[in-house]
Amino acid sequence: MDPAALADDPGNWGDWQTWAAWVLVAASLAMLALRAFRKRRRKKQDGCGTCGGGSCDR
Amino acid sequence: MEPVPDTVALAGNPNAGKTTLFNALCGTAEKVGNYGGVTVAVREGECMSPHGRRLRVVDLPGCYDLSGASPDQRLAAEVLSGRDPRQPTPDLVVCVVDASNLERHLQLVLEVLEFGLPVVVALNMIDLAERQGLRLDPVKLSEELGVPVVPIQANRGKGLVELKQAMRHPFPAPPQKRHWEKGEAESRRAFGLAAAALAARRPTAHSGNFSDRLDAVLLHPVLGWVCFVAIMFALFWSIFSFAAIPMGWIEGMQESLVALVEDRLGEGDLRDLLTQGVIGGVGAVVVFLPQILLLFLFIGLLESTGYMARAAFLMDGVMGRAGLSGKAFLPLLSSYACAIPGVLATRTIDSAKERLVTIFVAPWMSCSARLPVYLLLVPMLLGGSEGGAMQALVFLAVYAVGTLTAFVVARILRGRLGPDEVKSHFLLELPSYRLPQWSYILRHVLERGWSFLKKAGTFILAIMILLWAASTYPKLDSDDPAEVLGHSLVGRVSRIIEPVVAPLGFDGRTGTAILTSFAAREVFVGSMAQLFQVQESEDEEETRGRIRARLAAETRPDGRPLFGPAAVVSLLIFYIYALQCLPTSAVVARESGSWRWAAGQFVFMMVFAYLASLVVYQGARFLGLG
């Protein structure tokens, strides 16, 4: 797909952006799920992980 | 196969410098402070002996004796006696003592010697002792105690090579068990005092040193409080004044980024997501980074110089009136950074009931996650045009409101729980004033800043993107941003929330932003930036990057400003009191041993926040101030 041609066509350009925005939304959901998983694993390993790291000094 | 590393335990009184030595040995950067009780759990690290042998180092909580009255004393005693199932019995104990205060610190050393383990005494803070005119004799002390004594200065790394030499294989033989005559504690005390007198000879005439002269002012019943309030005022004033310039840079960068994205991308969802969700939402949180860095820098300075211990001394009387002992001060002080270490620090409190009460009120000490919310709202209350001094006063008041309410509730709760079986004794050591440990403070400030940025760049970014999607979809083919938002998921949620939050002076969007801040309080600022930007996008050139201006321009259907003084104070009050931190509830449940206690605390604080906001807003409206 030629980006220049897309730029000339606002409709297509808009569609492309919608898809890209949804990819970012899905990536955000995946990131939050991964964060929850890591926190759980850390809690299992060393009994901490309550704050997800960074909040307290432990 | 690699041999199992030997375990070396660091033991000593609070504020003997155990954690500083732990950091110096293991190359870590655990939190240290010029006051006792910073360590309430066992920390572990590794270092190498001079012969290249791995050593496992465990940093025990500081305590004055090993009688086991409080959880931290019990923990230290269990590790040393090999009764802690999580820790092997130490192969060597390094007793860290403050050379300038040998009389008190040797008492614990004598208790440790009775465990029959190999012991090395690290005579720390020799610089301070020498400045006080003490003449130290480590050889004499070693003869008296029957164990090696190594003079060190842990914060400068002096004497560490010699200490590691003493920590090498074979470890020194355990000292012979002493047989105390008559009362054990009394005999031990007498022996410790005699040994200290031999090993550290004081100058004949004790003239008041610099610390004593400064304490005459800073601990004075009246002047001390004047200085305390002045120091806190200066702290908040400088946060507002000094941070203005770097905040301007961040805002400028934010605007350039928005311009760049708008220049490169045509109209569309991705452009909206990047400008409103990512740059607008995350940027609204990141802009407070300079103020957060400054706050931690000043707190680090107060801790490192020794002023925090004086603040604890001043507060002891106030704590007594709240039905708490001075031991509750440090947990409450830690809660200003984050309630989680604050709740953990209650382990130093002997009385179980006092511990429960301290855990209950700790989240009302305004934590650093509330800081961006306050930093957004306080200038709005003053019309955004007032000077730093006025803002600092309001800021001081915001912190004071949470703290005073915590004391009042603590007193009521303490009375209801009844008297204690174990009386809590508070022994506070006033350390000499020291020059700040700049390298440690700067490292700690940078770590805090990095952790804030990391949170903004990961967790908050993800929430902002999801919030953008929820405020954009399902889409409506309309040019009116208010209609588009009203049709979206957020718009629908807002309509459900609005009747609940309207009596507090908030609209549905503010209610939704409050709801998002249950993920993390800082998210509120980003959510407000996003949810109100949608409405104002028609004149975005004028208001872009100025969230306060955008909020100030919002009006209600009857033409009154949406964020008048009554609504802003109501919002501030809500954030002071609401417990919007699920990790804190999890830690409270673990430390109190009861989910009911944690759930009760959550419900009480949420209802209290709601009712307090309601009274403030409706009261102000009734008086015609809204």
Question: Could you describe the 3D structure shown?
Answer:
The complex is a heterodimer of chains A (58) and B (626). With 58 residues, chain A is an all-alpha fold. Chain A contains two helices and no strands. The radius of gyration of chain A is 20 Å and the shape is rod-shaped. Chain B is α/β, with parallel strands linked by helices and 626 residues long. The longest helix of chain B is centred in the middle third of the chain and has 42 residues. The relative contact order of chain B is 0.08. Chain B is built from 27 helices and eight strands. In chain B, α3 links the parallel β4 and β5. Chains A and B meet through α2 of A and α10, α14, α18 and α26 of B.
Task: Give the arrangement of secondary structure elements.
The complex is a heterodimer of chains A (about 60) and B (about 625).
Chain A: H1 3-8, H2 10-46
Chain B: E1 6-12, H1 18-26, E2 43-48, E3 54-59, H2 71-81, E4 92-98, H3 102-113, E5 119-124, H4 126-131, E6 135-136, H5 138-145, E7 149-151, H6 160-166, H7 184-199, E8 200-201, H8 210-218, H9 223-264, H10 269-286, H11 289-305, H12 307-321, H13 329-334, H14 339-345, H15 352-361, H16 371-381, H17 388-417, H18 438-472, H19 481-487, H20 489-501, H21 508-516, H22 523-536, H23 540-543, H24 547-553, H25 565-577, H26 582-592, H27 595-622
Parallel strand pairs in B: 1-3, 1-4, 4-5, 5-7
Antiparallel strand pairs in B: 2-3, 6-8
Summarize this, please?
Chain A contains 2 helices and no strands. Chain A is 74% helix and 0% strand. Mean pLDDT of chain A is 67; it is low at 1-12 and 52-58.
Any descriptors?
heterodimer, A: 58 residues, mainly alpha, 2 helices, 0% strand, rod-shaped, disordered N terminus, disordered C terminus, B: 626 residues, alpha/beta, 6-stranded mixed sheet, two-stranded antiparallel ribbon, 8 strands
